[in-house]
Known about the structure:
The chain is of the alpha/beta class. It has helices at 12-26, 67-86, 99-109, 121-126, 134-150, 161-167, 187-196, 218-231, 253-258, 272-278, 295-301, 312-315, 330-341, 344-361, 364-383; strands at 2-3, 31-35, 47-51, 92-95, 113-117, 153-156, 173-175, 204-209, 235-242, 261-265, 281-284, 306-309, 324-326. Strands 10-9-8-11-12-13 form a 6-stranded parallel sheet, with helices on both faces. Helix 11 links the parallel strand 11 (281-284) and strand 12 (306-309). The mean pLDDT is 93.
Amino acid sequence: MVAPQPFYEDRGTPIAMRQVLLALSELGRQVDLLTYPVGADVGIEGLRIFRSANPFRFESVPVGLSLRKIVLDIPLTVSLRSRLARGQYSCVHAVEEAAFPAALYASQHGIPLLYDMQSSLAEQLGRLGPLNFRPTRWMLDATERWLLKMSSVVVTSAGLAQRVRRMVPQASVREWHFPSAPSGADPSDVARLRQSLGLRSSDRVVLYSGTFEAYQGLPELIGAIPLVRERFPNVTFVFVGAASSEPELASAAPYIESGALRVVDRQPRHEMPAFLAMADVLVSARAYGGNLPLKIFDYLAASRPIVATDIPTHRTVLSEERAVLVSPTTDALAQGIMSVLADPEHASQLAAAGRQYAKTHLGWGRFVQAVSQLYDEVERHAVA
Length: 384
């Protein structure tokens, strides 16, 4: 497995990778992981971690595209070439942009390639100002189409398989449905958390967790704060997942100062059950993007009502039975949140339906079985 990520850190793709590695270990698979020279080592049976060079002594890598990430991809690619030349591997599992060099090197060695498409790089890059021109977007799509054709099997975040089939109809593609994290939280931990945030017993909480990237729709959610509090003055918004500086919070300063909004730094994964248990409403305000945010799987297991934007990505696991789905606008988000706060019976029904879906479809055993079937399919390509 080659992953251009700081592994391990408690954030999106590294969390997903760790779950896959744990499943492979349970299946008795031996895995060499080649990753960035940043992150904490983890002990997983059958796993060896190899880290690429760090000529500039980077100690962190920000979420999303960055110059630091591009620089680190160069020694990662060199290490990948070296490892494939020396090792005997049944397949290469390449995550995100690492799949491009992996496609070339795997082909040279006759090794099947599993492309782990956590997001559409063409879609992401095409939204950047300098690249947001029709000829450039066409070139990005053509490059992505080449990679999909070179891959033996493609596994995508939930919501992206449709894009793959549209671009390359003959592609062998599956979608990840990651297991939900355990949702139990000790009431005393929840009480301490509320106290540390300065919340009164009468305060109700609307919680967002995740990165603070532009596609997450935080400006619209921030705009909903005064609308919700006008009707429910005892509501406090809590955003969990901030990094050192967050441009998306520029418009939030008055609400932070007034106490209407609490902003919390990124938390270790084991701390999140208390945050989710504290919430009266869980929100995913994502504005666009073809990949389903991992937090949705944990939201479903948390036995809390969900308000999410009605975009195709969310629709892969959410429905009107399990969430209030609204347009990605400030007014619609505010109305959705207020509809849950005003109707405890409906809120309870949504929470119960989400929890039941998680128990039925997002259990650990089901995930391990899906990983086993995925690798069986890759091996069939090796035989072919």
